[in-house]
UniProtKB/TrEMBL annotation:
<feature type="domain" description="LIM zinc-binding">
    <location>
        <begin position="247"/>
        <end position="305"/>
    </location>
</feature>
<keyword id="KW-0963">Cytoplasm</keyword>
<dbReference type="GO" id="GO:0030018">
    <property type="term" value="C:Z disc"/>
</dbReference>
<dbReference type="InterPro" id="IPR050604">
    <property type="entry name" value="PDZ-LIM_domain"/>
</dbReference>
<feature type="domain" description="PDZ">
    <location>
        <begin position="9"/>
        <end position="85"/>
    </location>
</feature>
<dbReference type="GO" id="GO:0005912">
    <property type="term" value="C:adherens junction"/>
</dbReference>
<feature type="domain" description="LIM zinc-binding">
    <location>
        <begin position="306"/>
        <end position="365"/>
    </location>
</feature>
<keyword id="KW-0479">Metal-binding</keyword>
<dbReference type="Pfam" id="PF00595">
    <property type="entry name" value="PDZ"/>
</dbReference>
<dbReference type="GO" id="GO:0051371">
    <property type="term" value="F:muscle alpha-actinin binding"/>
</dbReference>
<dbReference type="InterPro" id="IPR001781">
    <property type="entry name" value="Znf_LIM"/>
</dbReference>
<feature type="region of interest" description="Disordered">
    <location>
        <begin position="143"/>
        <end position="192"/>
    </location>
</feature>
<dbReference type="GO" id="GO:0046872">
    <property type="term" value="F:metal ion binding"/>
</dbReference>
<dbReference type="GO" id="GO:0031941">
    <property type="term" value="C:filamentous actin"/>
</dbReference>
<keyword id="KW-0440">LIM domain</keyword>
<dbReference type="InterPro" id="IPR001478">
    <property type="entry name" value="PDZ"/>
</dbReference>
<dbReference type="GO" id="GO:0061061">
    <property type="term" value="P:muscle structure development"/>
</dbReference>
């Protein structure tokens, strides 16, 4: 691996696109370049691994963290990259055909067909091979048989055998082991089945059994990585979250790349989360939700705020509830002193509200005997032109209760019959 450093002068765009990340369990690498862009002019190539971003180790960064790190660089972006050295071709030793082991060759047309039909691969029944393992096994020539003829091969073979899965690290450069007395359970199908070559002729399947003097050209590492990522469902686009899911705007139903906001359980582009009535962006200043629609505070007040019982205008601030109606605080006041009543007690007289102090002053009833207010529910009586508590209407001399009895009056004071002519 050849490590090197690239410095790109800003501003953005930088002319490349990332793939992979810690959240995808794939190292960060360059997936695409803009022709003539800054990255392409600096010698960056597709498939280069990203070792560091602005001096920070990129191995521990998720996809979105790497994107945010690059955006934060501003006017100067420093990348540490690593590139695989191209394999140097070596002269192959020519062997006689009778000593050359048989190899499976997948033609270019078959490779193209395999890449187009990648989505149709499924694990074989009865085996534990994953989908990506089956794709790599087919690309590297390590898969012996194809599904349609598997049952036929079992019937044509006289000796039962078990096919062991080949490790994914096998490469086409290494020749297959020669016929050195293999056990019957591990011998390849072409060694035990004489009709194997005829049955797998080019006009019957996409696999060709042939002799060749040089190994088949392996699939480039970058293409293999892309195929495995596509088969495993790995994402290569921008905007993915830490949980591996890319947010989709609830308003326009498009993938969000960059800043976004979450409200009411959905993700939105900041410019598309707007008031349903006036269209103002609701990114700041708060909002109200009513029947599935969002409103800015002014529109919500104009549409859903109650009306004041006095001035009939919309109540957009502090509200007063009284007499089963809603009021502006400054509209529900004492009739005498004009002070807002707010949460204090009040009394109604001829349909007008009064604070407690003014009501007692203007309409309050006091007992003539004790000079205290006669509250609601108190027993009282009217006599001598005044109001009395029932317990306060007594003889001024002997203090006998005169309620319901004959009494006399002298100087506006009640007297019993016994003290009717006494000096008061």
């Amino acid at each position: 691996m050849d490590s090197f450093k690239v410095v790109l002068e800003g501003p953005a765009p930088w002319g490349f696109r990332l793939q992979g990340g810690k959240d995808f369990n794939v190292p960060l690498s360059i997936s695409r370049l803009t022709p003539g862009g800054k990255a392409a002019q600096a010698g960056v190539a597709v498939g280069d691994w990203v070792l560091s971003i602005d001096g920070e180790n990129a191995g521990s960064l998720t996809h979105i963290e790497a994107q945010n790190k690059i955006r934060a660089c501003g006017e100067r972006l420093s990348l540490g990259l690593s590139r695989a050295q191209p394999a140097q071709s070596k002269p192959q030793k020519v062997q006689t055909p009778d000593k050359q082991p048989l190899r499976l060759l997948v033609p270019d047309a078959s490779k193209q067909r395999l890449m187009e039909d990648t989505e149709d691969w499924r694990p074989r029944p009865g085996t534990g091979q994953s989908r990506s393992f089956r794709i790599l096994a087919h690309l590297t020539g390590t898969e012996f048989m194809q599904d349609p003829d598997e049952e036929h091969l079992k019937k044509s073979s006289q000796v039962p055998r078990t096919e062991a899965p080949v490790p994914a690290s096998a490469t086409p450069q290494e020749p297959w082991p020669g016929p050195t007395t293999p056990s019957p359970t591990s011998r390849p199908p072409w060694a035990v089945d004489p009709a194997f070559a005829e049955r797998y002729a080019p006009d019957k399947t996409s696999t060709v059994l042939t002799r060749h003097s040089q190994p088949a050209t392996p699939t480039p590492l970058q293409n293999r990585t892309s195929i495995v990522q596509a088969a495993a469902g790995g994402g290569t686009g921008g905007g993915g979250g830490s949980n591996g899911k890319t947010p989709v705007c609830h308003q326009c139903h498009k993938v969000i790349r960059g800043r976004y906001l979450v409200a009411l359980g959905h993700a939105y582009h900041p410019e598309e989360f707007v008031c349903s009535q006036c269209g103002m962006v609701l990114e700041e200043g708060g909002f109200f939700e009513e029947k599935g629609a969002t409103f800015c505070p002014p529109c919500y007040d104009m549409r859903y705020a109650p009306n004041c019982a006095k001035c009939k205008k919309k109540i957009t601030g502090e509200i007063m509830h009284a007499l089963k109606m809603t009021w502006h605080v400054h509209c529900f006041t004492c009739t005498a002193c004009k002070t807002p009543i707010r949460n204090r007690a009040f009394y109604m007289e001829e349909g007008a509200p009064y604070c407690e102090r003014d009501y007692e002053k203007m309409f309050g009833t006091k007992c003539r005997g004790c000079d205290f207010k006669i509250d609601a529910g108190d027993r009282f009586l009217e006599a001598l032109g005044f109001s009395w508590h029932d317990t306060c209407f007594v003889c001024a001399i002997c203090q006998i209760n005169l309620e319901g009895k004959t009494f006399y009056s002298k100087k506006d004071k009640p007297l019993c019959k016994s003290h009717a002519f006494s000096h008061v």
